[in-house]
Amino acid sequence: MISHYKKIASELSVAEKQVNATVDLLDEGATVPFISRYRKEATGALDEVAVAAIRDRIQQLRDLDKRKEAIIKSLTDMGKLTPELSKAIDEAETMTLLEDIYLPYRPKRKTRATAAREKGLQPLADILLEQGKLDVELEAGKYISEEKGVNNAEEALAGARDIIAETISESVEARDKIRKLFVDKGNFECKVIPGKEQEGIKYKDYFEWNEPVKSAPSHRILAMRRGEKEEILYLDLLPPEDEAINTLESLFVKGRNEAAAQVSLAVADGYKRLLKPSMETEVRLLTKKKADEEAIKVFAENARQLLLAAPLGQKRVMAIDPGFRTGCKLVCLDAQGQLLDNATIYPHTGAGGVTEAEKTVKHLCEKHNIEAIAIGNGTAGRETETFIRGLNISGTTIVMVNESGASIYSASEVAREEFPDKDVTVRGAVSIGRRLMDPLAELVKIDPKSIGVGQYQHDVDQIKLQTSLDDTVMSCVNAVGVELNTASKQILAYVSGLGPQLAQNIVEYRNQNGAFKRRFDLKKVARLGDKAFEQAAGFLRIRNAENPLDASAVHPESYALVEQMAKDMGCTVKDLMKDDQLRKRIPLQKYVTETVGLPTLHDIMAELAKPGLDPREQFEAFAFSEGINAISDLKVGMVLPGVVTNITNFGAFVDIGVHQDGLVHLSQITNRFIKDPNEVLKVSQKVKVTVTGVDADRKRISLSMKENEIREPGAKKEFVKNAPVAQKKQTDRHIPETDMAIKLAALKGKFK
Questions:
Q1: Taking the CB of residue 514, how many other CB atoms lie within 10 A of it?
Q2: Phi, psi of 80 (to 5 degrees)
Q3: How far, in Å, CA of 344 to CA of 481, rounded?
Q4: What is the helix, strand, coil percentage profile of the chain, to 5?
Q5: In 3D, which of 715, 735, 733, 579 has the Cα closest to residue 666?
Q6: 687 forms bridges with which residues in the sheet?
Q7: Cα 86 to chain center, whole Å?
Q8: pLDDT of residue 263
Q9: Cα(168)–Cα(129) distance, integer angstroms
Q10: Burial class (CB in 10 A: 0-12, 13-18, 19+), 93
């Protein structure tokens, strides 16, 4: 195990003792947020990213150890374990190399080589591999046997070549070299299946596509694989075949004689029949794994940004789920998000009269003292926004809210449990309103894959995706902190150390006994023991608690320390929290112990200054351009406000209020070269964009965030802020991901 610690420390450029301490804490059941926040002295102040990386890497290495044990046992049972083999297995650093070592011994179905061995042709294969001077025909004639089914010398040689071909294909060195050749010099070759051109028009850019494996970006790999899965595209992974065979001949062909000629034939057969298909499968899986990792990384980062979007806070909200024919579902929520009232209005069809809709909205706003109106951005969203703004209701903030996933929530068991007597449209409107008040608290109720901020999230490894998303949601929830007396069981489940069952128990205790008055009362909750309390308590807040520290991120284990500080300063804890000058006089070094160091003490001071501070940004109202409600309203050259809804490797999607997101390609985000849109943008960011292209038939909108010139065909030269400029290096050929990207935008909110 010590070697594992050294290996991880080297890979992550941290000290071995940091890895050791982190792994010990993880093995004891500590969570990533808890370790990074409350065990800085032990880990050397490693952040969540480093702690999670250590957790994942130690698991990989432990899985490798388990596989080594299984292989050793298998070889021992077969009587084939040698000291050399044992040493090679012990030194294998990757699962790929380990499986290559085991491959010749792995039990397998009957092959041409096993059939040849059963005919007694192994000695002939061994003689040929030595490639000494011999009469091949004469030597092969010694193995003719009617009884064994070898009728002539050529059949003997063919069987021997089958054995040699399999030996070559199972060679660790040969597999390593051919694998590298596939990765370094292989090409993805993509073609449309004849007759599928119209059905697969969204894959048009891949109908004749060739791209090096080494440089193919993850989104294009996933797009090609999806097209293959949908039986629209043929996808091959091909290395330079001559170089592959020459590489193998350099390893196995040792001379220029009859035996060497037989080995050369076996090399060609072994490559084409065995090694090439095996390596193609393996490298396809390898590139898929890397593409998955990249796509999951993109999705997790987008989800993080969306979850940490600025909350409106505790305001009385009217929320509207817009619609034309079926009307707009309207709900009123109190400052805690509880449903007060609901109605249906028909401002667009005349059913019930527009005047009636106006009266209803104004009446409910006055009745419930509404402070903000949230309008879903789906069908009829902009038209509803125009209607509401036209009412000129004073004292209200009007906000368009991304409603992706609201329908998922409305039909969920969670929504049915909370609103058993309301239909899905009312539940959906409630979700829209609560999403404005506190995006994090509401979005944790929805499967993150359904909130429209991913890239091929349904094509990637679902287990790894879920693990990443769970990590992301837990990180966000614990970074913000959770109000113990109002939190739903869904958000409580993501608090460090809890989980669904303890979250349910907390809610039941709260319902039976009333609000928690102290953090230590958590220990009265069924099945919530000392370990769970240790992990969770610091992330839970109790507003207006008896102990003011219960509203902060100061962990209960440090309460005595803070109380001692207050005593030494001749004041109360409340005084310390109110008086900056008092805190500055505290000699922190005096309170350093074996378990509490300056990192924790500085964290405590920061919390005393701003207890329970929400790390999210302040909410800012946003409005789209008036009169721009549909794609038909757009013209090239328009400069419009927008909101970033999704970030991919190749650009960002921006909602400009026309029910169809536009794409700002990577090359059009900024005047300087960037590799990753996240260098400049984040989900929910407000931006200004210039319309550079509109294809209404294909629902494609091209946008730019650059500041340069733009000219329509035949128009005079004019300068428009944020407009694009051609960059030959990045934009002189069509990027095939664009069609797929536009498709993603069209499907936004429908990933269910």
A1: 9
A2: -115, 5
A3: 36
A4: 50, 10, 35
A5: 735
A6: 642
A7: 38
A8: 97
A9: 10
A10: exposed
Nearest to 382 by CA among 149, 184, 141, 633: 633
| β-sheet with 328-333: strand ranges across | 339-345, 328-333, 317-321, 372-376, 397-401
Residue where one domain finishes, among candidates 299, 330, 354:
299
Are residue 637 and residue 572 in the same domain, yes or no?
A: no
For the residues 334-344, what does the mean pLDDT come to?
95
Could you tell me if residue 61 is inside a domain? yes
- Shared domain for 157 and 265, answered yes or no, is yes
CA-nearest of 576, 603, 579, 601 to 589 is 601
Task: Answer for the pair 701, 670: CB distance below 8 angstroms, yes or no.
Answer: no
pLDDT at 66 over 90: yes
pLDDT at 742 over 70: no
Residue 748 or 484, more confident: 484
Which of these three, 557, 579, 609, is where a domain ends? 609
What are 521-526's contacts with CB under 8 Å, separation 24+? 522/484
**Cα(344)–Cα(306) distance, integer angstroms:** 29
**663 and 701 Cβ atoms separated by less than 8 Å:** yes
Q: How many domains does the chain have?
A: 5
Does residue 286 share a domain with residue 177? yes
Residue 321 pLDDT greater than 90, yes or no: yes
In a domain? residue 96: no
- CATH code for the domain in which residue 660 is found: 2.40.50.140
CATH, residue 23: 1.10.10.650
Secondary structure E strands in 305-348: 317-321, 328-333, 339-345
**43 with 136, same domain?**
no
Do β-strands 708-710 and 700-704 pair in parallel, antiparallel, or remain unpaired? unpaired
- Hey, what amino acid is at 574? K
H-type helices in 514-664, by residue range?
Answer: 530-536, 559-568, 573-578, 580-584, 598-609
pTM of the model: 0.84
Where in the sequence is the domain holding 689, given as residue range(s)? 631-746
Number of neighbours of residue 556 by Cβ within 10 angstroms = 18
Q: Are strands 233-238 and 208-212 parallel, antiparallel or unpaired?
A: unpaired
Q: What is the pLDDT of residue 289?
A: 94
Please compute the mean of the pLDDT values over residues 284-290 and round it to a whole number: 94
**How many CB atoms are closer than 10 A to CB 106?**
10
* Whether residue 136 is found in the same domain as residue 271: yes
- Is the model's pLDDT at 172 over the cut of 90? yes
**Mutual orientation of helices 48-78 and 16-27 as an angle, nearest 10°?**
80
Nearest to 597 by CA among 606, 605, 588: 588
Among the listed residues 243, 240, 237, 242, the one whose alpha carbon sits nearest the alpha carbon of residue 225: 237
Q: What is the pLDDT of residues 644-696, one digit of tens each?
A: 988 888 899 999 988 889 999 999 999 888 888 988 999 889 999 999 999 88
Q: Which CATH number characterizes residue 409's domain? A: 3.30.420.140
> Does pLDDT of 737 surpass 90?
no
* Same domain, residue pair 577 and 709: no
Q: Is-contact 318 373, C-beta < 8 A?
A: yes
Phi, psi angle pair for 66, to nearest 5°:
-65, -40
Res 656: pLDDT: 92
The residues, any chain, with a CB within 8 Å of residue 127's CB and separated by 6 or more, are 134, 139, 259
Helix (H) or strand (E) segment spanning residue 643: strand 639-648
Residues 240 and 127 in one domain: yes
Does a structural domain hold residue 311?
no
Whether 102 maps to a domain, the answer reads no
Query: Which 3 state secondary structure label does DSSP give 515?
Result: coil
Q: Which residue has the higher pLDDT, 303 or 718?
A: 303
Tens of pLDDT, residues 685-711: 999 999 999 988 878 899 999 864 344
Claim to verify: residue 646 and residue 605 sit in the same structural domain: no
Distance in angstroms (rounded) separating the CA atoms of residues 718 and 691: 14
Asked if residues 646 and 744 have their Cβ atoms less than 8 Å apart, the reply is: yes
Q: Which residues contact 395 (CB under 8 A, 6 or more apart)?
A: 371
What is the rounded CA–CA span in Å between residue 64 and residue 81?
A: 18
Measure the CA dihedral 485/489/494/496, to 10°: 50
